[in-house]
Amino acid sequence: MPAGLSTKNPALGNTLAPFYTPYPPPNRQPGGGVIFADPGPAGGFSLFYSSVQVNLMALQFDLVVIGSGPGGYVAAIRAAQLGLKVGVVERESLGGICLNWGCIPTKALLKTAQVYEYLQHAQDYGLTVQGAGFDFEAVIKRSRGVADGMSKGINFLFKKNKIETVMGTGKLLAPGKVAVTRADGTTETVEAKSIILATGARARQLPNLPIDDQKIIGYRKAMTPDSLPKSMVIVGSGAIGVEFAYFYRAMGTEVTIVEYLPRIVPVEDEEVSRQMEKSYKKLGINILTSAEVTKVDTSGAGCNVFIKTAKGEQQIACDVVLSAVGVQTNLENLGLEELGIKTEKGRILVDNFYQTNVPGIFAIGDIIPGPALAHVASAEGIICVEKITGHNPEPLNYTNIPGCTYAQPEIASVGYTEAEARAKGYDVRVGKFPFSASGKAAAAGVKDGFVKVIFDKKYGEWLGAHMIGANVTEMIAEVVVARKLETTGHEIIKSVHPHPTMSEAIMEATAAAYDEVIHL
Fold first, then answer.
1. Do the strands 59-66 and 187-197 form a parallel or antiparallel pair, or are they unpaired?
2. How many CB atoms are located within 10 Å of the residue 284 CB?
3. Which of the residues 189, 281, 316, 454 has an alpha carbon 20 to 30 A from that of 296?
C-alpha cells in the first residue's frame, strides 16, 4: 500500500484491488490527493483520503487538446459544441502565448503609446495639454491586467462548454494516450479517441544573441521590463520588432532597428516597406538594413552592439538589445519521435485536415507549415474538429490569409504582393489611393499611408491588397471576404462605401486600378 494511505476497514488488509476507485471520479483534492471509497462491513461505503497521487483510472475524453492558445482553445470549444467530451492540457495559462504574452498585451501597450503620442501633439488638434507624463509601472500593469482578463474569459468559456482543464505538460505515450506531468512532478494519464497538438511557439534565439532577460531580452521581458530603457537596439523588423520599436520610441526610448534583409517588414509589399521606413524615420527611429549583428558585448554597464553593414562594421552602445528574429516551434518532449510522427524543418507534417501520419493524432497552429498567426491557428482548429466529428469542412485557403502589424502606422495585407503577382506571370492592374487624399484621414490628422490593390487583367481576379495607415487592420477583412466570394473590381466600385471613412480608400484604390478614380 502506498505510504500515507489509510483505511477505516483494517479487515481488508494492505491491498487496494479490486475495491478502491476514485469517488466520484475524478475527485482530485488540493495537493494532488484523492478521495477513495472503502466498502464497509455492511456493504456500504466509508471515505478516506490519500495524500499521494494514485492513478487507478485514466481520465477519459473523446478529444484531448495539448495547448490552449488560439488554436487549442478554439478547437476545444468547437469540439464541445459538436458534442464531444473535451479535455485540454495546459502547462501555464489558458489562452497561451497570444492572450498572455503576445497579441493582446502588446496591443494594450501600443494603445498606451498611441494615446501618449496624441498628448504630445495635442496642439495639432487645437488643444493645450501641460505636464503630460506617464507612470511606466502603471503602463505595464494595465497591459498585464488586460491579458489576465482575457485568460479568465477562456476559463469561463471552458466552464460554459463543460471542457475540463488538466494543468501540466503533456507528452504522447501512444495513439489515444497522453501523460501529463504537473508542476509538482506528479503524473496523470489522459486518454482520448483523438488528440490535437497545439503547443505553439516561443522566441527564436540566435547563437550570437543569447537571451539572458537582463541585457539581451525576448518579447516576454520586453512586455514586462523593470524600467524604461534610455536606448534599445531591436534585431529584426517583422511584426514583433516594429511593434516594440513604436512602443518604446513613443515612450521616449532611443531606438535602432537592425534588419538583415534589404528592407524592413520584408514580407510586405515593397511600397509598404518604403512607407514604413519613411514614417519611422519621422518618429526618430534609426534604421539599418542589409545589416547583421555579429556580437553583443554585455560586460559593461550596458551593451555594445557590433553591426556588420555594407559600409563596414559599426558599433552602437545601448541599454538593452531586443531579439525579435522570429519564433521556434514547441516540439521538444512531445513524444513525436517515439510515435514516429513525421516532421520537416521543425514543423509537423499534416494533411488538409491536420491529420498527422499517425491515425488519431492531429496538429494545428504554429507547429505545422504555414503562417504562424493566431487567426490561422483558430481556423485550423475549427476545420480539424469538424472533420473529426464527421462533417465535411472546406480546406483552408492559405492564399487568402490576412496579416496585420499593429504599430503606427498599421499594416494590413492579403494575397500576392505586386512583385509576387508579376513573378507568377499575371498581367496585373494596380490601383493605389493615398490617405493624403482622404477627408477622414485629414480630419483625424493621420494622412500617412495608402491602400494598394492588385487585380488580374484577364479575368478580374483580386490578387492582393496592401495597406499602411491608421486603422487599416480594421479594413482588411473587406478584401478577405471579397476574395472569398470571387468579387470583381467593378463590383467593389459599384458597392457604395460610406463617406467619410478610411475604408472608402479600398473603393477608391480599386477605381484607380480601372482608371475610374474620382478623388485623385
1. parallel
2. 9
3. 281
DSSP string, 88-134: EEESS-TTHHHHHHSHHHHHHHHHHHHHHHHHHTGGGGT----S---
Whole-prediction pTM: 0.87
Q: 464 - beta bridge partners?
A: 415, 454
Residue 289 and residue 279: Cα distance in Å, rounded?
15
Helix (H, G, I), strand (E, B) or coil at 408: coil
Taking the domains of the chain in order of start, what are their residue ranges? Answer: 1-57, 60-202+329-398, 216-325, 409-513
Active site residues: 499
Tell whether the torsion through CA atoms of 93, 99, 102 and 106 is positive or negative.
negative
What is the assigned CATH class of domain 409-513?
alpha beta
Q: Tens of pLDDT along the chain (520 residues)?
A: 333 333 333 333 333 333 333 333 344 434 444 444 444 444 444 444 443 444 446 799 999 999 999 999 999 999 999 999 999 999 999 999 998 999 999 999 999 999 999 999 999 999 999 989 999 999 999 999 999 999 999 999 999 999 999 999 999 999 999 999 999 999 999 999 999 999 999 989 999 899 999 999 999 999 999 999 999 999 999 999 999 999 999 999 999 999 999 999 999 999 999 999 999 999 999 999 999 999 999 999 999 999 999 889 999 999 999 999 989 999 999 999 999 999 999 999 999 999 999 999 999 999 999 999 999 999 999 999 999 999 999 999 999 999 999 999 999 999 999 999 999 999 999 999 999 999 999 999 999 999 999 999 999 999 999 999 999 999 999 999 999 999 999 999 999 999 999 999 999 999 999 999 999 9
Dist. CA 63–CA 176, nearest whole Å: 9
Q: Considering Cα of 268, then 328, then 152, then 197, what sign does the dihedral take?
A: positive
In this chain, the answer to whether the domains covering 60-202+329-398 and 216-325 adopt an identical fold is yes
Q: Which three cell numbers stand for residue 291?
A: 545589416
CATH topology of domain 60-202+329-398: FAD/NAD(P)-binding domain (3.50.50)
Q: For 216-325, CATH number?
A: 3.50.50.60
| Region of 4 on the Ramachandran plot (φ > 0 left; ψ -120 to 50 alpha; else beta) | left
